[in-house]
Design a protein that fits this description.
This protein has 241 residues and is of the alpha/beta class. The chain has eight helices and eleven strands. It has two domains: 203 residues, Spore Coat Polysaccharide Biosynthesis Protein SpsA, Chain A; 36 residues, no CATH class. It is globular.
Length: 241
C-alpha cells in the first residue's frame, strides 16, 4: 500500500500540530502528504508553508475560501495524484485525529484480506459498540452506513469516478452530509464499506473539549444545522454548560 494522504485544515492550529505529530510518530507505510487548507486565518497557512519548505509535507494547497471537507478532499486527491500517480490508496484525514502505532499496517492488512473492501473508516468511535461483520476473519463495523471523516479508499474507487459531494452545508441536519453520501455511493458501487474494528485511531475533538475552540464549533455546528450542539456551545461561551 502506498498512501496519498489529504489532510484538511481549517483553523484549530494546535489541533493540526497535534494531528501531524501523531501521524509522523506512527506511520510506517510509504506515503505522500498533501495538506488542503480551507482559508484559515489563525496562523495555520504560515505554519503549513514552513513545513513545506522544510520538506515535512509534500504539497500545500491554500483555498481562497472555506470549501468545507468534501470539496477540499476532492481537490487534495485530484491534485495529489497528478504529482504522485503511483499511490494505490487515498486517505482523507481531518485535523483532529490521534493514531496509535500499527494503524497503517493494520489498515493495509484489511485491504489485502478483504478483496471488495472499498472504504475503511479509521475513527474507531464511529463503529464502537456495534456488531462487526467478519470477512476472512477480519471485523468491519458498518454503522451508520458511512465511515465519517478520516478514512482510506482504494485508488480503484477514485478511478471509477466516485467523489465527495461538494455542496455547502446549509444549516439542515436532515440532509445527508458529504461523508454519508460518499460512503453510500461507494457501497452502491459494490464495495464493502465499514470501520476498522480496532481502537488504533480516533478523533480527540469531542463534546468534552469543544470549549478549546468555541467559535469554530459554533460556526461548524450552526452550518450543519445541529441546533442542540449550537445551544450547548453557546452555553459554554456564556459559562453555563
Amino acid at each position: 500500500m502506498r498512501l496519498l494522504i489529504t489532510l484538511i485544515t481549517y483553523n484549530r492550529l494546535s489541533y493540526t500540530k497535534q494531528t501531524l505529530r501523531s501521524l509522523w510518530d506512527t506511520i510506517e507505510v510509504p506515503y505522500y502528504l498533501v495538506v488542503v487548507d480551507n482559508n484559515s486565518d489563525d496562523g495555520t497557512q504560515k505554519y503549513l508553508k514552513g513545513l513545506k519548505e522544510r520538506g515535512r509535507i509534500d504539497q500545500v494547497i491554500l483555498n481562497s475560501e472555506n470549501y468545507y471537507p468534501g470539496k477540499a478532499c476532492n481537490i487534495g486527491w485530484t491534485e495529489g495524484l497528478k504529482e504522485y500517480p503511483q499511490a494505490t490508496h487515498l486517505m482523507r484525514l481531518d485535523n483532529d485525529m490521534h493514531f496509535e502505532k500499527g494503524w497503517d499496517t493494520r489498515a493495509e492488512e484489511y485491504f489485502k484480506t478483504i478483496d471488495r473492501l472499498g472504504q475503511l473508516g479509521l475513527d474507531f468511535d464511529g463503529g464502537e459498540n456495534k456488531t462487526p461483520q467478519y470477512y476472512n476473519g477480519m471485523g468491519i463495523t458498518e454503522w451508520p452506513g458511512c465511515v465519517g471523516g478520516p478514512n482510506i479508499i482504494r485508488r480503484l474507487v477514485f478511478d471509477a469516478g466516485l467523489r465527495y459531494s461538494e455542496e455547502r452545508w446549509e444549516g439542515s441536519n436532515s440532509k445527508l452530509q458529504e461523508d454519508s453520501k460518499f460512503s453510500r455511493e461507494v457501497k452502491n458501487d459494490g464495495w464493502i464499506v465499514g470501520h476498522m474494528d480496532e481502537r488504533l485511531s480516533w478523533t480527540f475533538a469531542n463534546k468534552d473539549n469543544w470549549n478549546d475552540f468555541p467559535d469554530y464549533y459554533l460556526k461548524t455546528m450552526n452550518d450543519r444545522g445541529y441546533d442542540e450542539h449550537v445551544k450547548y456551545i453557546e452555553g459554554l461561551k456564556d459559562g453555563k454548560a
